[in-house]
Design goal:
The chain is mainly α. The protein contains 2 helices and no strands.
């Protein structure tokens, strides 16, 4: 009787481990999204940065 009980138990254990892996991946993804969004908020806007073709970059020539 024990071998017939071990198969469903092992299958449910594998399913539980897969669920934990998927949940860990989801939590990690959410954390990375929050970090990326906070980095984008701290980064200056493109209009605030001087363009590479502006006169300020060629004054040293």
């Amino acid at each position: 009787m024990l071998p017939t009980l071990a198969l469903p138990l092992e299958t449910s254990l594998v399913a539980y481990m897969e669920l934990l892996i998927v949940l860990a991946f989801g939590v990690g993804w959410i954390i990375l999204e929050k970090v990326a969004n906070s980095y984008d908020r701290d980064k200056p806007k493109a209009e605030d940065q001087p363009s590479p073709l502006s006169d300020e970059t060629t004054k040293g020539d």
